[in-house]
Design brief:
2 copies of one chain form a homodimer.
Chain A lengths: L12 H19 L4 H8 L3 H13 L3 E7 L10 E5 L3 E8 L3 E8 L4 E8 L7 H21 L3 E9 L2 E3 L4 E5 L4 E4 L1 H9 L4 E4 H12 L8 E6 L3 E7 L2 E3 L30 H4 L1 H8 L8 H13 L3 H25 L3 E6 L1 H19 L1 H5 L3 E4 L6 H16 L19 H5 L10
Helix pairs in contact in A: 1-3, 2-3, 4-5, 6-13, 8-9, 8-10, 9-11, 10-11
Chain lengths: ~425, ~425
């Protein structure tokens, strides 16, 4: 019998303090404004422990006192109200077939800066596209620093297979990128560490944290654009698979003898339900080459009741249902979120998805599930990218600095930037 | 932004002691025989803590002293060697289309009792089949108690959708069971609590703990018999899905317009790759109606090089590859284990599975994977059922009793058995 199962490190006082630092931070995040006494009463920690942990969180600029006092709710005398601070921000980037986007979000969930610029990235060299991304990141970082914000991480959403550890885009068929070291290339351009992630994964996280799937810990986000991406959240955590290549819902088989797919297989869901495929079937074409205009036009004509458009959308919903039925039989989730272009198109897709799922999946029929339109549509990926580093801090606040010491400059210049003697305006002014 | 993420209970000294009790137990399990001093050195816990935790584990009858001493390996004077005890056992049952099986396993992984009796369960009333299961369980429990063993749990493997919490088989198409309260029915027959689980899930656990997938924490076990089951292990843990209906690999679509499946859909993997489908395509029929004889006969004729049999097996491997490609695109696992009847047939299936997976899955092609024949074949499910309660104890040893107190009688008579005033010979003699 093998007993090799991971949890073999002993626990000690540091484990306890770190766990409780997270407990207090998440309590303030979900229940704030709240006093130290309320936090103690509601978490079960002693007041002394809470006070010490709050001091640490204030020093890390994660929590602040509002200046007001809270009502005691039976916990003794009123205390200073605590809430999340709005100084720490995350920076999200997104590169897609026809645009580059950037978003800066603070710990309270407010968007502090957001831009999207349309360019044809499919027919541009990868270095040109990376230059565009780098300029967008630089502008967002500069604007944040001017406002006195403290960026703690830059994440990039890419439509494709991503190797997170090395920061490499292994294969992004719709951009034509193969084994491209995107994190290194961007670091070289902006001088700070960059993290890359699959866009549908980030869209799923955004929907989970603040969108359609708040409170739903097990769901699949199907993210439509030229391709069809999938983000899987299981037990409240993003599921990435062993190499990080999981969640590729667009390449689940829906017709064994279907037409060839950019991935090298045939009959993949994406060949039936990508926005260009739907538009072709509906007889709709793009304005100025912008893909978003395809979605807008499909919505407009569907609202007008155009039979060919309604037929194409119904078919797309049924193909989505077939692909999702296989996913459902394996994953048994509670919800499907229709994201990206499927968000605005959801009113015409939902019935086909639901009926096909019920007909095709014993698991779906035996359990219960909901089909939800995305709250963020096609900004979900960049919002998820912005929030990613913030959520890492909420999970493990101690990574932000030494207990009760000064906050570390988190977006420190990389070794490479330092070697170049480049002036990098990141950190606090 | 939503911050509702589970880990909101504070940690305390009990958390630490429980975690460390598990650390010591798993160290003895993986490194034993070993002394207290070695355990301290290798886990990073103090000797005093280890001694106290070992006393608790000895009182719980999970660890014992071998009577020998271990070599010091630079950790000071020699000490009494510790190893897992062999008193605590788990009881596993399996009900299948044409047999009922039972297995009793101890904490050291030794099988202490095992029986299988062939009966046609498909054309028997469910109450008759439950009587058969109950008699098998009773005989195994009595034999265990005669040997002075201490049974701590009874688990039943069923081919179908199982609702673990209520102990109900929601749908077992090949047995014709719908919404059958199997746990309650068996409890009423044997007088002790019963836990039910999907058979392919248990087969996957058996392969992970002691079979083909030891050391592999992310894999899919595809379990062939009349139907095709799937057990998914992710991050070293069984993945069951939200309602517990996940892992139904047999109902992943491989041909949208394929023939009808018992699940109500069409074109499911199981309609192409179940053992009866393969045998039909190969022109092989069963001896005395036993399904196992189909596998034996397929192996015999494949070894003889019979072209029709080789063709049928190659086709089955390719259908498995198509179904697994969809699973791979979603789950990105490291390995496929070919279990149940696919174990002995693996030599003729592996190439088709591998080639199809590489052609059909970008994730499989971009990462790396292995296709492994099962170590346990068709006894995997009952072995996994026997080991299930043992592994729960290895994860959470404190559930076995109060610290340093006497071990609780774990298979206590259920309330219902007590109400009936039945004499239930469970516990220690």
């Amino acid at each position: 019998m093998s007993f090799d199962r991971g949890a073999s490190r002993p626990a000690d006082q540091t484990t306890v303090r770190r766990a409780n630092l997270g407990v207090v931070l998440r309590h303030v995040a979900s229940a704030g404004p709240c006093s130290r006494a309320q936090t103690a009463a509601e978490t079960g920690l002693t007041r002394g422990t809470v006070s010490s942990l709050v001091s640490e969180l204030v020093a890390l600029e994660l929590v602040r006192e509002t200046g007001e006092t809270t009502s005691p709710r039976g916990t003794g005398r009123p205390g200073a109200a605590l809430e999340l601070a709005d100084v720490v921000v995350g920076v999200g980037l997104e590169v897609n077939v026809d645009y580059v986007a950037v978003s800066v979000e603070d710990l309270r969930g407010a968007v502090r800066y957001e831009r999207r610029s349309y360019r044809d990235n499919r027919s541009s060299a990868s270095s040109t596209v990376l230059d565009r991304l780098g300029r967008a990141a630089r502008s967002a970082l500069d604007a944040s620093l001017r406002e006195g914000l403290r960026p703690i991480g830059v994440s990039v959403a890419v439509a494709g297979l991503v190797e997170e550890a090395s920061g490499t885009v292994v294969n992004a068929p719709n951009l034509g990128w193969v084994d491209l070291p995107v994190a290194d290339e961007l670091e070289a351009r902006i001088g700070v560490p960059v993290h890359i992630e699959n866009e549908a994964n980030l869209a799923a996280l955004a929907e989970h944290w603040a969108g359609a799937a708040v409170g739903i810990d097990d769901f699949v986000c199907v993210f439509g654009e030229v391709g069809v991406g999938g983000g899987i959240v299981l037990g409240g955590r993003l599921f990435r698979g062993f190499h990080g290549f999981g969640g590729e819902l667009g390449h689940v088989l829906v017709a064994a003898e279907g037409c060839e797919c950019a991935c090298g297989s045939r009959g993949c869901l994406e060949t039936f339900a990508g926005v260009e495929s739907i538009a072709r079937a509906a007889g709709v074409s793009a304005v100025e080459g912008r893909l978003r205009s395809l979605t807008d036009e499909l919505v407009r004509r569907a609202e007008d009741g155009a039979p060919r458009v309604l037929g194409a959308l119904d078919d797309a919903g049924r193909w989505l249902g077939i692909g999702l039925a296989s996913a459902f039989n394996l994953l048994d989730v509670r919800a499907i979120v229709l994201g990206g272009c499927f968000g605005p198109l959801a009113p015409w897709l939902v019935d086909g998805v639901r009926e096909t799922l019920e007909a095709r999946s014993l698991a779906a029929r035996s359990g219960s599930f909901v089909v939800l339109p995305s709250a963020f549509g096609d900004v979900a990926a960049v919002r998820g990218a912005a929030a990613l580093s913030l959520h890492r801090v909420l999970d493990e606040p101690w990574t932000l600095g030494v207990p009760n010491g000064p906050p570390r400059p988190l977006l420190a210049p990389t070794a490479r930037a330092k070697r170049r003697g480049k002036e990098v305006a990141i950190g606090r002014h």
